[in-house]
């Protein structure tokens, strides 16, 4: 059963990259089908408007609920998971990507402006799985880039998408923390040598060196990922 993804957005062109590279191949292989929908196709006024001023005042504009209701109703089934990217959401992570990779149908509602009228989430929550997700502690101009990131992170975990599942095995056995540094040919580049141990062929010494490098890097860049932190 291929994973189906429907993206609803006012910027369909943002999703052209999904036709490239790994994401493109995943679609050609039939493992994943991705459809992009222009929210304005679901408006009914002459100006195809999608936003209005916020109740309670405040800066910016809020996306009106009806076009979203029409657009989501056009694709939703009882197997759907509705994902709403928002800075206020739970933090997206590799475990969440793995969950999404094993879903049947994902609907991404890409908001812009100050967000989507909250009643859209309230309306679908009793009917299907609804997840408000952020991709990090910063604010983008809309949910489109967040959706691209979540789709890429999830689709690469769909069984069969990655030609070499070996890289997934390494990833999953990754010690808590960040990855060790990688090197390839040439052995010397602009006077800089590849660490000797990597050319030694001593696999247990290489494994030890890589574990040490991972710990050093994690301590320096991501102490929050160290065990017991
Ligand atoms: C890390 O930032 C996000 O995940 C993010 C998602 C969204 C949606 C926006 C407009 O509705 S702004 C924004 N930022």
From TrEMBL:
Signal peptide positions (record): none
Binding site for S-adenosyl-L-methionine: 111, 135-140
Keywords: Cytoplasm, Methyltransferase, S-adenosyl-L-methionine, Transferase, tRNA processing
Name of the protein described by the UniProt record: tRNA (guanine-N(1)-)-methyltransferase
Reactions this protein catalyses: guanosine(37) in tRNA + S-adenosyl-L-methionine = N(1)-methylguanosine(37) in tRNA + S-adenosyl-L-homocysteine + H(+)
Quaternary structure and partners: Homodimer.
Stretches assigned to the tRNA methyltransferase TRMD/TRM10-type domain: 3-226
Main localization category: cytoplasm
Gene Ontology cellular component terms for the protein in this record: cytosol
Gene: trmD
Family, similarity comment: Belongs to the RNA methyltransferase TrmD family.
Top class in the EC scheme: transferase
Functional description taken from the UniProt entry: Specifically methylates guanosine-37 in various tRNAs.
